[in-house]
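Reviewers of the previous submission asked for a worked example of the structure-prediction workflow described in the proposal, so we include one complete record here. The input consisted solely of the amino acid sequence. No template or homolog information was supplied to the procedure at any stage.
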Amino acid sequence: MDAEMRFHVEAYADELIRGGMTQKEALRRAHVEFGGVEQKKEECRDARGVTLVENFVQDVRFGARMLRKNVGFTVVAGMTLALGIGANAANFTVISAVLLRPLAVPHPEQLVAVGDPTRVHSWSNGTPQTNSFSYPLYREVRDQNEVFSSLLATSRLDNARIVIDKGTEDLRGRVVSENYFETLGVEALIGRTFSSVDGGAPGKDPVAVISYGYWQRRFAGGAGVLGRTVQLNSVPMTIIGVTGPKFQGEIVEDQPDIWAPMMMETQLMPQKAYLETANISALLLVGRLKQGATIPQAKANLARIRTVSMNAGKSRPYSNSSGKLGGVARTWKRAMA
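From that input alone, the workflow returned the following structure tokens.
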């Protein structure tokens, strides 16, 4: 910092010398116009965030001194935090259906969010999570649970851009499992929504459904939108349906403009391809409870799936790119750590 301050003062003095001043007068003038050096140092520290770091270090040192003065409290606090963090990591987050009741779908009281709805736009790389899910873990829960009549997966569509008639614009999008609309009980206003035939294999179904609001804004509500091909994130996608005016998506107050099948994720977001890896947690799950099933039963059933998966995976190899039972079992284990 001292060297940088001297550089600025001397550079300005050299400029004054070239203008005809003596060296002594130029240095005096430069110091006067530059202002207090210590004050400038503090301004630079603030701009660079140095003061914030220094304050943080001081706070840590103070906290450490206070904790050393009361060892008993420190031990109890540490154990409490460890137990709380461990309990949250070891269990699914199963959210009461009441949070989903504002959704304009049939029987919203039957819907349960599996995962943390506040993480609907989050990605987690590395350590697997159970407040958001990897795709292999979603498949296991979907196929082995006994409490949901249907279980969907949904994630954000990163940097969604669409090209229509050579015009480019940003929009809000979600990538969803092929049973998304079926689980929510939502039918298309015109055209159709996704079905099981749209989830056959990665990249095989370049189709999209758009919202009623986007249909009105961008296509003036014309029926000719069906079958129209647009470029979504540089991928040709055919619009097959439009949702009704009341449907706002699965996230309250966060209405998407467009939905794409999850099997198109690799093409739409090649930099974050997660279909085959258990180490990217990006999915929120929403299930529709079977008749008579309860949230406590859902928690117990998911806990059993976790236990069976971990036991079955003990003798199986783990692969970062594997969606097999062994890989998912390792996901459970790491999520509980």
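Confidence is low (pLDDT under 50) at residues 75-92, 314-337. We consider this example representative of the routine output the project will generate in years two and three.
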